[in-house]
Amino acid sequence: MDQTNKTSVTNKNPKTLFDPTPFAFSHATSAEGKGQYVFISGQSGGEDLKHSLSEDFRTQVKYSLKNLETVLAEYGAGVAEVLKITILIVDHDQEKLKIWTEEMHNTWKKNTFPASTLIPVPKLALDHMLIEVDAIAFIKK
C-alpha cells in the first residue's frame, strides 16, 4: 500500500483511567488531516457468498473480523485505520468476551486498538448469527 495514504490515527488512553489495551480497545481514537471517513455496516461471521454461519462462536468472530478487513481493503485500508467499532454479541458472557479479546489481539497485532463498545443482545438479524461488528474508519488523503 502507498504509504502516503496511511491514516494518521492517534489512540489516547489517559493515565488517570485504567489501561484498556489488555481488553483490546482504546479509550479514544482520532484522525487528523484531509481524508475520507468510511462507515462499515455490521459484519457477521458469515463464511462465504451463501453467508454460512458456523455454530462455533470463535469461528464467527474470526470471520466477522476477516469480513471487516475485506471491506477495509476495498478502500486500500486496514484495521489501523479503524477509529471506532461496535460489537453486538448474542448471549454475551465472560467466555465470549475472552474469545473476542483474543481474536482482537490477533487482528490488531500492534495493540493500537480502536475505541470500542460491546453490546450484549438476545438476537441478531438472522438466525444463528452470534456476532456482528460495525466500524468507522478514516483514510487519509
Structure overview:
The protein is of the alpha+beta class and about 140 residues long. The chain has one domain: 60s Ribosomal Protein L30, Chain: A (2-Layer Sandwich), CATH 3.30.1330. Helix content is about 20%, strand content about 30%. It is built from two helices and six strands. It has helices spanning about 55-75, 95-105; strands at about 10, 30, 35-45, 80-90, 115-120, 130-140. The strands form two sheets. It has a four-stranded mixed beta sheet with strand order 3-6-4-5. Helix 1 runs parallel beside helix 2 (about 95-105). The radius of gyration is 15 Å and the shape is globular. The two termini are about 15 Å apart.
Give a brief rundown of this model.
Belongs to the RutC family. This protein is of the alpha+beta class and 141 residues long.
Write the layout of secondary structure elements.
Blueprint: E1 9-12, E2 28-31, E3 35-44, H1 57-73, E4 82-90, H2 94-107, E5 115-121, E6 131-140
Parallel strand pairs: 4-5
Antiparallel strand pairs: 1-2, 3-6, 4-6
Helix pairs in contact: 1-2
Family: Belongs to the RutC family.
InterPro entries: RutC-like_sf (IPR035959), YjgF/YER057c/UK114 (IPR006175)
GO molecular function: deaminase activity
